[in-house]
Specification:
The structure holds two protein chains of two kinds.
Chain A lengths: L1 E5 L4 E5 L8 E8 L8 H10 L12 E5 L8 H12 L6 E2 L12 E2 L4 H8 L14 H5 L33 E5 L8 H5 L5 E3 L6 E3 L9 H5 L5 E4 L4 E4 L4 H5 L13 H4 L6 E7 L13 H8 L4 E2 L10 E4 L6 H8 L3 H9 L3 H7 L11 E5 L3 E7 L2 E6 L2 E5 L5 E8 L14
Parallel strand pairs in A: 3-14
Antiparallel strand pairs in A: 1-2, 3-12, 4-7, 5-6, 8-9, 10-11, 13-14, 15-18, 16-17, 18-19
Chain B lengths: L24 H15 L4 H9 L4 H10 L1 H15 L3 E6 L16 H8 L2
Helix pairs in contact in B: 1-3, 1-4, 2-4, 3-4
Chain lengths: 422, 117
């Protein structure tokens, strides 16, 4: 195995290949605080890419209810358990969160899926610790989650209150997921055919179906379980990051990079996707006016999903603020407390950048803020709040303006029947 | 979607444990939903209907636990800040998307012209 630097772990780690980094990297931020599990993203992806025979069980984009739900069922519990069996009670973080871009969350002193595989798996060709989900685990996404139900035998009618299971007095939140197009993809590392590759121009991880022989090593290795096997073609498939849109070659995009279908369909406006610049060691190059760089490395409100797996995923999440911190620390690493503190008390720039989510289907490459006057000053839940009429301007790849948002006082129109009532 | 009664031999049968919640997690969740959607410009009525909608289980759960009166007061408190203004989006002059005008049916004289004499 080679040694590569993983900035999310704050240290070097083992990986089956030398580190090679794209010119730009596909990345995204999801604000979980806003997700209501409408599944629009899920269906946008399904209706674009996985609607054919043999793909019935495939949901490249999905939304699951945490902590119970998962697609495939229990995917994260199972891989966390495997890692814990390999390194009992050793999966810990040391150091402290900092502003150092090379180790913003401290150091992970436990074992990644590559390191655990290196120590425990035989033969040598087995490179990544993982497991193959059963058919039952793939077959029923969202089973027993809070999906609407109808009464038995009555078609096209939902239950009046939507309840079927007993309601537990507990917490939950919705986790939207797609392939993380990892910097160190486990699927790529595990494939004996070298059928999986990472594109040098945008870091999108693709699977060459003409090379694939359906060994399912990628399905076993991906800790997020986002590579899937198709029985009728006997090869594996995975999220392609809607690459014609990202390239700007989709007829609708008119040559300008466009966000993926799942991003564009988001009703709750939780999603922003972009292409970030990387340094020669895989860390993010400073790009102060890039909205994703700002959210991940300046405001530090967006965190990677299960960074301890070691794949350096490029999906980042603004964590839900009502969920027990222990659970969130396990899921998003030690940066959780800082992220929630900052999100709960957003400064002027963060409030402006949050306004960039889902205002356009074009990929934002840069933003600018023109400061305006104070429009509101007061308190909210005991904290001082100041809102300014700042204008935030988004620019596309060609440097041209995509849109701008401003703040305006609402205009109240008196209803017609009261026009002359004074 | 489980239409049938639970079958104990079903390997996917729900086996769940209750994960203890922090004391005020429902309250925090209610504030989070109210604030996030108020920022998107939802009115008091739209926010309340989001909480009343049983299929938005998170918000609905908070309403069931805290009661409509508490949820209304949370919404009111949130709107005291976020209802004072609106975020307005101006697209760049160079529009990328298909213009609405192009979707309108052609004027009758245009149609006649295209159909020919």
């Amino acid at each position: 195995m080679s040694r590569v630097y993983n900035w999310q772990l704050g240290r070097e780690m083992s990986y089956p290949y030398d580190g090679k980094y794209p010119e730009r990297q596909f990345a995204f931020v999801f604000n979980i605080n806003r997700c209501i599990a409408c599944q629009s993203c899920t269906m946008a992806c399904k209706s674009t890419w996985t609607f054919s025979k043999g793909q019935e069980h495939m949901w490249w984009a999905n939304v699951e209810t945490k902590p119970y739900g998962g697609y495939p069922q229990f995917w994260d519990v199972k891989i966390l358990d495997l890692l814990n069996q390999t390194n009992p009670d050793g999966q810990r973080w040391t150091g402290s969160v900092s502003d150092n871009g090379k180790s913003p969350y401290g150091q992970f002193s436990g074992q990644t899926i590559f390191e655990a595989g290196e120590k425990t798996l035989q033969p040598q060709s087995a490179r990544v610790l993982g497991y193959l989900p059963s058919d039952e685990e793939w077959n029923s996404p969202n089973i027993y989650e809070d999906n609407p139900v109808g009464k038995r035998g009555i078609r096209d009618k939902l239950h009046e209150t939507g309840e079927q299971l007993p309601v537990h007095n507990t917490w939950f939140f919705y986790l939207a997921r797609i392939c993380n197009h990892c910097t160190y993809p486990a699927c790529l590392g595990a494939c004996p055919r070298k059928a999986i590759y990472k594109r040098p121009e945008d870091g999108i991880v693709l699977l060459d179906q003409s090379e694939c022989r359906g060994y399912r090593k990628c399905v076993e290795a991906c800790p997020y379980k986002k590579t899937m096997y198709r029985g009728n073609t006997r090869v594996s498939e995975k999220c392609v990051a809607c690459y014609p849109r990202v390239e700007g070659t989709d007829p609708e995009s008119e040559g300008q990079p466009m966000e993926t279908r799942c991003m564009a369909a988001c009703i709750g406006q939780i999603r922003m996707q972009g292409l970030v610049r990387l340094n020669s060691d895989g860390t993010w190059a400073e790009d102060r006016q890039h909205p994703l760089y700002y959210l991940v490395h300046v405001a530090k409100v967006a965190l990677p999903l299960y960074p301890q797996f070691g794949t350096s995923p490029n999906g980042y999440y603004i964590p839900p603020r009502w969920v027990p911190r222990e659970y969130l620390r396990q899921m998003f690493g030690p940066g959780v407390d800082r992220a929630i503190e900052r999100y709960n008390n957003p400064d002027r720039e963060l409030l402006a950048v949050l306004q960039l989510f889902r205002r356009s289907n074009r990929i934002i490459f840069r933003y600018e803020i023109k400061e305006g006057p104070l429009v509101y000053e007061g308190t909210y839940r005991g904290r001082p709040v100041r809102i300014y009429n700042d204008t935030v301007i988004a620019f596309g790849k060609n440097g041209k303006e995509l849109f701008r948002t401003t703040v305006e006082e609402p205009l109240h129109v008196r209803p017609a029947k009261h026009q002359n009532s004074i | 979607m489980p239409y049938a009664d639970p079958d104990p031999t079903d390997p996917t049968l729900l086996v769940g444990v209750e994960v203890p919640a922090e004391e005020d997690s429902d309250l925090e969740m209610a504030y989070a939903f109210a604030e996030e959607f108020a920022r998107l410009g939802f009115s008091q009525q739209r926010l309340l209907s989001l909480f009343r909608q049983s299929f938005y289980a998170g918000a609905y759960r908070a309403l069931q636990r805290l009661g409509e009166e508490k949820i209304s007061s949370i919404i009111k408190e949130t709107l005291q800040v976020w209802d004072n203004f609106r975020f307005v989006i101006h697209d760049s002059p160079e529009r990328f998307d298909v213009s609405l005008d192009s979707l309108r049916p052609l004027e009758p004289h245009h149609q006649q012209h295209e159909d020919g004499p």
